Amino acid sequence: MVGAVLVQNTRWLNVERALTRMR
Questions:
Q1: CA angle 8, 14, 20 (to 5 degrees)
Q2: Biggest alpha carbon distance in the chain?
Q3: Is 20 exposed, middle or buried (0-12, 13-18, 19+ CB in 10 A)?
């Protein structure tokens, strides 16, 4: 359970970084 949450958090961080780069 915890591992899955960490993976999801990492994916969201990557998405946020990608959005920031797009800007």
A1: 140
A2: 33
A3: exposed
